[in-house]
Automatic annotation (TrEMBL):
InterPro entries per record: P-loop_NTPase, Thymidylate_kin-like_dom, Thymidylate_kin_CS, Thymidylate_kinase
Domain of life of the organism encoding this protein: Eukaryota
EC number: 2.7.4.9
Enzyme class: transferase
Taxonomic placement: Eukaryota, Metazoa, Spiralia, Lophotrochozoa, Mollusca
Sequence similarity: Belongs to the thymidylate kinase family.
Family annotation (Gene3D superfamilies): P-loop containing nucleotide triphosphate hydrolases
Pathway note: Pyrimidine metabolism; dTTP biosynthesis
GO cellular component: cytosol; mitochondrion; nucleus
Sequence ranges assigned to domain Thymidylate kinase-like in this UniProt record: 17-176
NCBIfam families registered for this protein in UniProt: DTMP_kinase (TIGR00041)
Descriptive protein name: Thymidylate kinase
Keywords attached to this entry: ATP-binding, Kinase, Nucleotide biosynthesis, Nucleotide-binding, Transferase
Length: 207
């Protein structure tokens, strides 16, 4: 079992939470942040899309169904939204800061491929060269259960049938593309206390 002790050269670690909408990523990111800060780690939390940038404001309007964009265009905007923070994230990691991400490139790929209009290869290409995470948490929650959570349905992608397709893509990309990552599949239906214990020991049971 591995701990969160800083790796050699004191480089910060990058942790990513992925999953469908309303699966509990934001809550678990905050829980992990609090747990790490409690043991003296400096932690920064990012949430994608970052709606505070110029690119993010366009994405926000798209998700709120205020504007329509071609699938290719919105995919590239999501990618650009991540790239515009890469230098800051790299600097923090080199300075020993732990970075937690609520969504990353994997969401961008899975949501776009789930639409059925873009290929996996095309969707992966713009993210080539981004910083690779040290650990990925996949919160696997049924869209039927996510549908019962507060706020589901407020944004463009929050449709049960589409979320089923997104979940399928996450399961596929995890099998095919995450083999080089230390990844942990976390059961999003479990109680908060249980999930939090798994987070603070992320490599437990992960061979």
């Amino acid at each position: 079992m591995m701990s969160f002790d800083p790796p050699e050269l004191h480089r910060g670690q990058l942790f990513v939470f992925e999953g469908i909408d309303r699966c509990g990523k934001s809550t678990q990111c905050e829980n992990l942040k609090s747990a790490l800060e409690g043991v003296g780690r400096t932690v920064v939390l990012y949430s994608f899309p970052n709606r505070d940038t110029a690119i993010g404001s366009v994405i926000d309007k798209y998700l709120k169904k205020e504007i329509d964009l071609p699938d290719q265009a919105i995919h590239l905007l999501f990618t650009a939204n991540r790239w515009e923070t890469m230098k800051d994230i790299q600097k923090m990691l080199l300075n020993g800061v732990t970075v937690i991400m609520d969504r990353y490139a994997y969401s961008g790929i899975c949501y776009s491929v789930a639409k059925g209009t873009l290929s996996l290869l095309w969707c992966k290409a713009p993210d080539r060269g981004i910083i690779k995470p040290d650990c990925i948490f996949f919160l696997d929650l049924s869209p039927l259960k996510a549908n019962r959570r507060a706020g589901f349905g407020e944004e463009r992608y929050e449709v049960i049938e589409f979320q089923e397709k997104v979940r399928d893509q996450f399961l596929k990309i995890k099998d095919n593309s995450w083999k080089k990552c230390r990844s942990l599949k976390v059961d999003g239906t479990g109680g908060r206390g249980k999930l939090r214990r798994q987070e603070t020991n992320p490599y437990e049971g992960d061979d």
